[in-house]
Each structure stands twice: as C-alpha cells, then as structure tokens.
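Incident log, structure service

09:12 report received: a user says their structure output differs between two submissions of the same chain.
09:20 pulled the input from the user's history:
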Amino acid sequence: MGDVFKALADPTRRTILDELAERDGQTLFEICVRLTSRHQLGLTRQAVSQHLAVLEEAGLVITRKQGRYKFHHLDTTPLAAIFERWPVTRKGQEP
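09:34 re-ran on a clean worker, output below:
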C-alpha cells in the first residue's frame, strides 16, 4: 500500500491518472500530447515513461501490448483497497 501513496504523492502522476480516467487505454505518445496540450506540462517521453513505471509498480496502471504499441489502463483496485480499509464517515455518523 505504501507504493500507492508514493505514486499518488506526485502531482504529475495524479494528472496522468486523471487523463487515464478520462480516456483509458492511451499510448505513451498520446499521454505526452495530452499532458502538453491540456496541462502545459513540457515533460519528455522518458520522464512520462518513468512516472508510468511508478504508477504501474503501485498497481494503478496496467499495460497491454498490441503489435508495436503499448496501451496504458487505469486500475482503481488499489484505491478501493484503501477505501475499504478506512471507510469514510461523515461528522455525527457512526462508522
């Protein structure tokens, strides 16, 4: 679970996850273009690839190869595990 928190601690990685949540199954090139055009993040492909590796190691991103392309998909399973561990309670409500 520590890897998940480490992965989520970086704002760029959270932005990548937001992009995958909006449009799942993107290639590295597509992610780079969206980060540049929508978020004005001028990251190199290598930098984005390193961020994706951290997200993949944490289980938040899974990849699928198809021919010469590698598609990245959001996996929210680790987030669900966090939510189940610490359920959200509202003020004045019993857990």
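09:41 both user submissions now match this output. Likely a transient worker issue. Closing.
09:42 reviewer note: The longest helix spans residues 45-57. The first strand starts at residue 61 and ends at 66.
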